[in-house]
Design a protein that fits this description.
54% of the residues lie in helices and 7% in strands. The chain has 219 residues and is an alpha+beta fold. The chain has two domains: 88 residues, Glutaredoxin; 116 residues, Glutathione S-transferase Yfyf (Class Pi), Chain A, domain 2. The radius of gyration is 18 Å and the shape is globular.
Length: 219
């Protein structure tokens, strides 16, 4: 059985959404980020990314991680792709061309979307976007997202989903990275086709189940 390490309030949301879509049985070990624990090394501290037991799984001390037999993976998008290839059915690649396209969209999400989108989220959560310096930072991040979002907008104008007519793991990976910037209303309004696609992704029962579990976790 697959064992997934990590909490819902982390990048583990990506494989957890995929697993919810698939209804695939797995063991869940809720490892929390060490920065959220008062004394990560104290006796009785919750299992966290600085715990020796978890560092034996991922010496880098980051979540999520996946164990599948002797295979251990420590990058969320690689975890999603492995699950999709192994047990994803229609959510996974059906041929080599689709596998290449899914690889492409995973890298697009990681290199084109995630960093700037995450900076927007952090600034908004901290209220920094209400200051002049913070607003300038958010504006700069939105500018960095302009080209990748223009690409998404053009692609989705002629495709219901990233691979065409069916929802796949590619949609999960890109949607979860873009979710970080979802609170930037002007940015999303400027890309209505992409916003509509994101809404379709988030209307799926798998996303709703993942998000409900995420919201149920302590902040």
């Amino acid at each position: 059985m697959l064992t997934l390490y990590g909490v819902y309030r982390s990048r583990a949301s990506r494989p957890l959404w995929l697993l919810a879509e698939l209804g695939l049985p797995f063991a869940h070990v809720p490892v929390v980020q060490a920065r959220r624990v008062r004394d990560p090394g104290a006796a009785g501290a919750p299992l966290n990314t600085a715990s020796p037991a978890f560092l034996a799984i991922n010496p880098q001390g980051q979540i999520p991680a996946l164990r599948d037999g002797d295979l251990v993976l420590t990058e969320s998008l690689a975890i999603c792709q492995h699950i999709a290839r192994k047990a994803g059915g229609s959510l996974g690649p059906q041929n080599l061309d689709e596998a290449a396209l899914i690889d492409q969209w995973a890298l697009f999400a990681a290199t084109g979307i995630e960093a700037a989108a995450l900076e927007i989220l952090y600034a908004q959560e901290a209220g920094e976007d209400k200051t002049a310096a913070g607003a300038a930072k958010v504006a700069e991040c939105a500018t960095r997202l302009a080209r990748p979002l223009a690409r998404l907008e053009g692609h989705l104008a002629t495709h219901q989903w990233l691979l065409g007519a069916r929802f796949t793991v590619a949609d999960i990976m890109v949607a979860e990275c873009l979710r970080y910037a979802q609170g930037h209303k002007a940015l999303m309004a400027a890309h209505p086709v992409t916003s509509a696609w994101l809404a379709r992704c988030q209307a799926r029962p798998g996303f709703k189940a993942m998000m409900a579990a995420r919201l149920a976790e302590p902040a």
